[in-house]
Amino acid sequence: MLGEASSENAKELSDEAVLARSQVEPWLFAVLLERYQEPFMRKARSIVRNQLDAEEVVQDAFTKIYVNAHKFEIREGAKFSSWAYTILMNTAFTRYQKLVKHGQRVAN
């Protein structure tokens, strides 16, 4: 495990750099969790309208982001946040559709 100084330095890295490095230094992924957990929760709740479902959506999205990190490509105009939010939104919409299909009430 790296020292406190390394942890602080990691917080200064771009999202894209953190994602890339987290593939060989998995502890770094926590930096992205810290940055995006609350905004992801707000967005997921706005779609599924339920705290527990939103928590599962966010957890699933972060898992997909980590597992598929090797698929992220740095391109001009493309940022990690756009890619990550796309994964989050797709995960949330899939969960919403399952809730509706199974007749579970989704609050408005």
As a whole number of angstroms, the C-alpha radius of gyration is 15 Å
- Specify the overall morphology: elongated
Beta-strand content bin: under 5%
- Helix tally equals 5
Query: What is the straight-line distance between the termini?
Result: 45 Å
- For the report, how would you describe the main beta sheet? none
What is the helix content? 55-70%
* Low-pLDDT regions: 1-5
Order of helices and strands: HHHHH
Q: Please, what is the average pLDDT?
A: 89
Quantity of strands, as a count: 0
Secondary structural class: mainly alpha
Description:
The chain has 108 residues and is mainly alpha-helical. 69% of the residues lie in helices and 0% in strands. The protein has five helices and no strands. It has helices spanning 4-10, 15-22, 29-48, 51-67, 80-101. Helix 3 (29-48) crosses helix 4, helix 3 (29-48) runs parallel beside helix 5 (80-101) and helix 4 (51-67) packs across helix 5. The longest helix is centred in the last third of the chain and has 22 residues, at 80-101. The N and C termini lie far apart (45 Å). Residues 1-5 have low confidence and may be disordered.
Essential attributes:
single chain; 108 residues; mainly alpha; elongated
